[in-house]
Design a protein that fits this description.
This protein is an alpha/beta fold and about 325 residues long. It is built from eleven helices and 14 strands. Helix 3 (about 95-105) crosses helix 4 (about 110-125). Bound molecules: adenosine-5'-triphosphate. Pfam families: ABC_tran, DrrA1-3_C. It is found in: Cell membrane.
Length: about 325
């Protein structure tokens, strides 16, 4: 039997006393995809991740990793994935090289193998130049790269990244995204939690949106965007005396209300049928409306987030 899914979760639930932190969640993560867990603070992402990675017992439900029961075969399952964010307690005075050597040895590699693996990972994560510096001198980006390198020592096919870029500056974040894409290109499956909507949009093949412990939506970024409504049309006119007539033209064609933003003479409306853009443009031109700007925008991940999650948990 070939296993198609890296992870299968069925009816996963976690209660802390009376509080239901994760509520009957089911989903699958396919081999080779980047799967994003997205949700507001306190939604239950970390608790879900901790159960999948055997760090926390579930109240009920089932987790399978490459076909193995994560609760009954936890030792086997643990050897199948890498997990970042677990090495914070490492001595800050030791170097990146020493750090990788220690964890390679803990992973059962011989001294010679550990040396080679350390050298390869330092090169892969652009840490060669800083390899012998104390970790205390490392920037946030270098620490994250080292953390990821450590999680890959045993060459896992599945990697969990809990908020891999939180606190990084935009450039370092982009470098981390490249590193993650590289990992996937080499065949790994990646599960990540993130509080950045842009990150989920950029990296994830599919996203599970979690709110109040429940799975509220699952799909590709485009599917999620489509699910919260159609595109919006924005027309900016050059001359404010033409706003009213432009509004009438658009309303007549779309049969919908057009909103006027006082700033920049901008008109906006829901555009369910993109084919209506051409007649709108033609009619505005025929009526000699001086158009400054016209655009059609799909919903953003921000729109998805606000539409699917219900504010503060
Ligand atoms: N050990 C615990 N004991 C009691 N309640 C807990 C415990 N761990 C988590 N919770 C609660 O469970 C809910 C889900 O928390 P969780 O940390 O999984 O959310 P999250 O989506 O990861 O949020 P964040 O983005 O803030 O990390 C929260 O209401 C939290 O307070």
């Amino acid at each position: 039997m070939t296993v198609e899914n890296a992870i299968e979760i069925k009816n996963l639930t976690k209660k802390f006393d009376d509080k239901v932190a994760v509520d009957n969640v089911s989903f699958e993560v396919r081999k080779g995809e980047v799967f994003g867990l997205l949700g507001p603070n306190g939604a239950g992402k970390t608790t879900t991740l901790r159960m999948i990675t055997t760090l926390l017992n579930a109240t009920s439900g089932e987790v399978k990793i490459f076909g193995h029961d994560a609760f009954k075969e936890s030792a086997t399952v643990r050897s199948m994935f890498g997990l970042t964010g677990q090495y914070a307690s490492v001595d800050e005075d030791i170097s990146a090289r020493e750090n990788l050597m220690i964890f390679s040895r803990l992973n059962g590699l011989s001294r010679k193998e550990a040396k080679q693996r350390t050298q390869d990972l330092l090169a892969e994560f652009s840490l060669i130049d800083s390899a012998d510096k104390a970790i205390s001198a490392f920037s946030g980006g270098m620490r994250r790269r080292l953390d990821l390198a450590v999680s890959l020592i045993a060459r896992p096919q599945l990697v969990f990244l809990d908020e891999p870029t939180t606190g990084l500056d935009p450039r370092t974040r982009t470098q981390m995204w490249d590193t993650i894409r590289d990992l996937v290109a080499k065949g790994s499956t990646v599960v990540l939690t993130t509080q950045y909507l842009e990150e989920a949009d950029e990296l994830a093949d599919r996203i599970a949106v979690i709110d109040h412990g429940k799975l509220v939506s699952l799909g590709t970024p485009d599917e999620l965007k489509d699910s919260v409504g159609g595109s919006s049309l924005k027309v900016q006119v050059a001359n404010d005396t033409q706003i009213t007539i432009a509004k009438e033209i658009i309303e007549n064609i779309l049969h919908t209300d057009v909103e006027i933003k006082a700033k920049n003479n901008e008109l906006s409306a829901q555009l369910e049928n993109p084919k209506l853009l051409t007649p709108i443009f033609n009619e505005l031109t025929t009526k000699q409306i001086d158009i400054e700007n016209i655009s059609v925008q799909k919903p953003s991940m921000d729109d998805v987030f606000f539409a699917l999650t219900v504010g503060k948990n």
